[in-house]
Every structure is written in C-alpha cells, then in structure tokens.
Amino acid sequence: MKVVLFAGGVGTRLWPLSRKNTPKQFEKIVGDKSTLQLAVDRILPIFKPSDIFISSGIMYEDILREQLPQIPKNNFILEPEMRDIGAAVGFAVAVLEKISKDEPFIILWSDHLVKNEDLFRNILLVAGKILEKHNDKIVFIGQKSRFASQNLGWIEFGDKTDEIDGIPIFTFKSLHYQPNLGVAEEFHASPHHAWNPGYFGTTPNFLFSLYKKHASKMYEQLLKIQNAWGTDKFEETVKNVYPTIEKISFDNLILEKIDANDGFVIGADIGWSDIGAWESLKEALSETVKDNATRGKVMVNDCKDSLIFNYTDQMVVGIDLNEILVINTEDVVLVCPKSSVPKIKNLVKSLEGTSHEHLT
Length: 360
Hints:
Elements: E1 2-6, H1 35-43, E2 52-57, H2 61-67, E3 76-79, H3 84-100, E4 105-109, E5 112-114, H4 117-133, E6 138-143, E7 153-164, E8 167-177, H5 181-189, E9 193-202, H6 204-214, H7 216-228, H8 234-241, H9 250-253, E10 263-268, E11 272-274, H10 278-285, E12 293-295, E13 298-301, E14 307-310, E15 316-319, E16 324-328, E17 333-337, H11 344-350
Parallel strand pairs: 1-2, 1-4, 2-3, 6-10, 12-14, 13-15, 14-16
Antiparallel strand pairs: 4-9, 5-11, 6-9, 7-8, 7-9, 8-10, 16-17
C-alpha cells in the first residue's frame, strides 16, 4: 500500500504565520516540527519511505527536500503551478496508476492534527485490507464530530456491513460540504454522520477511471503526463500540459458524482482536527472551550477561549480577552475575534499590488 500526502496550498487562514513563501504545512505550528513532518512521522511506522509520495508545488522543492530527507527524490510530485485540488489529485493518481495501478493507496493532508495515532494507523491498515478485496471502491475515513461545524465537510453513512480487526465498516451514503447551522446540528446529533477529514483509500486504477468517466478532458491531459512519467520528457510535458488543466475542486469534479455503492466508511474518534485556521487550531489544542491556547512568551490574566501565539522574543500580555486571537510575528501583529477568521483571506488578498505585498 502507498500513501500520498498533499502539501500544496498557501494557507491564508493561518496568516500572518503562513505565507506564500512559507505556507502553513512547513511551519512549526504544533511542537518542534512542521505539520508536514508530523504527518510523515505519523505514518512511518506502517509505511516505508519509498511508499510515501508528496504532492506539492515546484516552488517548495527545496523546503520539501530539507524537511523530508528520508523521502526518495522521485516520490515528490511537483506542480509547476497550482490548479486546485481536482488537478492535484489527478496528477498524483496518474503517476501512481503508472507505477502500480491496482495497489491500494491512501490520500492524506499535511496540515492536520491526529491525536489517537495508533487507532489512525490501524484504520489505514484496515482500509488497505478492504481494498485488497474490493479494488473498485473508495474507503472514506470519518471523524466522530465534536460539535456542529458549519466549516467542515460531513460524511453520511448507513448500516454496519463488516468488522475487521475490531474496526467497524459501514455502507457509504453521501457527502455534504459546509452545511448551514441547522443542518450541522442535525448531523452532529445523528449516529450516521461524521466529519469528513478528506482522508480516503482506493486504487489508482479505479480513481483514474472516475476521471475518465466524469472529467474526460482532464483525463486526456493527465494521460499525456502519465505517458511521459519516467522519461526525459516528463518535466517538459508537465510544464506544458499542467497549466492548461481546469481549476476545479476534487469534490465538484469527482466525489459529488460517485455512486453510493462505490464506497465504504470507517468512522471513529481519531482525535482529528483541521488546524488550517486559527480558530480550529484553538479548538484542537484546548481541553475545554474556556481554555486558552498559548505559544512562546505569553502571559494571560482573566482571559478565556483565546489563542495567543507569539513567535518573537518580546513578551505578549493579554488581559480580559474573550474569544480573541493574537498572533505576533516579527513583522505583523494580528488581533481579531475568533469569529473574524474568515475575513483574513480577503485582507491578505487586499495587500496584493500594494507596498505591503511582501507580507502576503
């Protein structure tokens, strides 16, 4: 079994720590390693480095090789420019289908936190066992919801259909992306819904066939890249073909079109959190809602439900803060309510073309 870790996006929801030149997945957000390094460490006990592939942008090649020296050079699948997740997944699948088309593989993301690592690894192994019997299926991995999130995707699943190594397997029903609050509350109360971390297993041959079925033009473009893989024309082909591929999300391109009979679901509490935004990082690090999350030289007095991260040598002091984010870097200080995080992306975009563009 192989695994592909995606480490592409810029991560503006974690600005000013995450920027174009040093995106969130390469930063030490939790502990003393980047989230990408933590993601690799999490799977190394069950995957050989030669079976781990990294999907990212060519502009990050030096950072990738510095942070992941154990990963073989040919296992870095590098985009010449970003074309959204639909193209990124297709690129990786085209490569894997050329290498080992019927061997199961897992898709994971590099900016997440998983606390229950043993259970997580066992689930990946069980997914592989399912795919050895059903190489024309997708095995989705769901996280038991902790609250009614409107910002995450959700998986709806049906009855238990099997159990492998003590881990129950359920039938797949549907995917739902960012529901409104009322629907999210219904999902959270339901025993047949879970958060969708975006983790799933399948075989390259099956997933590539879905591109052929639902995205024929992109499939033909990816086929050109696949045919050049392993030849001296590969880099030139990628450089010429990849920028012409449509920009579209993987959900819209493929996942929303799959048949319910094509999937299984493994739902469990693996302690997963998407730490790609400050408010979600706060939720992941705090034992209770009222707890504060701090990093660096920070002093708090009568504060609650706040995140204060200091990446400088000066002291940051918070008094009477409630649901507030304070991010202090060498050249930017961000202060805002947790509820204002969605506005960060537009703020960063507004800096483009100005004298402050270097801060993006």
